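Lecture 7 notes: from sequence to structure.
We start with the chain below.
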Amino acid sequence: MTLPGFVIRNAFRNKRRALLSTLSVAASLFLLVTLQTFQREFTLPPSDIGASLRIAVRNKVSLGVPLPVRQRPIVEGIPGIAGVTPFTYFGGRFRDEAYTPFAQFAVDPVAFTNVFVDARTPPDQLAAWMQDRRSCIVGKVTLERYGLKIGDKLKLIGTFYPVDLDLNIAGYYSGTPDDRSVFFHHKHLDEMLGGGKTVGTWWVRAASAEAAPGIISALNAAFANTSAEVRAETESAFQMGFVSMWGNIKLLIGSISSVVVFTLLLVAVSTMSMAIRERFRELAILKAIGYRRRELFSFILAESFGLAMVGALVGAGGAYLAFSFIDLPKLTGGMLRQFEVTDRILAMAFTIAAVLGVVAAIPPALAVARTSVVDGLKTLD
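Predicted structure tokens for the same chain:
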């Protein structure tokens, strides 16, 4: 029998235990990869072309406090700004849904296309939207999810505002990181509310990435010591602010991941110690016929490392295949936009498995090294 054959035969001597050990590693690493992918999904800043140029301007007190519409000429007059649009969250309910998964925003259609340059709409549909004040454009994901089409009515029941909207779908947009939202005319919302004195936020596009820091400083200074001071920040910082409202996601997921790894380590060490304890006599005989400590440790390490890597292949590899072939953005209605198991996450999972395999082999290897041939034969005699 060859040495590799000897190690493999010992590893699968107790098939039930080997299977359970491998599955425990696989399940733990599957969970770990899933958690890390969730963390990446919710903390990854926008990376589209326009994100580096867009700036969100909100009330310094709170996002829920509106800004006066009279600020617009001042904002447009700041050097380096290429476009400005009002951006007001409507928050209506669609149909009889208790929770509507797509957001709705009132904007200036002409300025919107200049600020959100990555949103692509067919020219004829874009023209129809601009001409009809009661119309809207709908994200392609939402359009497909609800089976809507151009020309349909889209009725939104007001929750934040005491008005309902009955909009005509003029077109759709695509090409953004989140093709779910609905955009309609801010003037229509103003008419429904009986006046247009406030907006939710301003969204600004800088002419260049180099000009963005100066524009942020100028925006904050322009309204300092007024009744409506503002906080200007990049799109990435604005979105990370929403994430921070849920708490420290990185700390939470990191804590759970640490518990998973620590529990897995305890299980692996216990399993390997049990497996080696049952073979003390055989290892004592190997010692007696001339095998040295480092060679015995190599046998134990190969067995432990092999089982850990098989578990990693099943768990981490299974997570990669599952999340690659299942269309999670469609399945979750666009709530999960990418959910990509990256090479870095896979490398982390396999590294943890490798370290686990090495560490789990150390306690039983030390026990074998400290046990004499006579004591080893007596232990299981």
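Points to note: The chain is about 55% helix and 15% strand. Residues 293-325 form the longest helix (33 residues).
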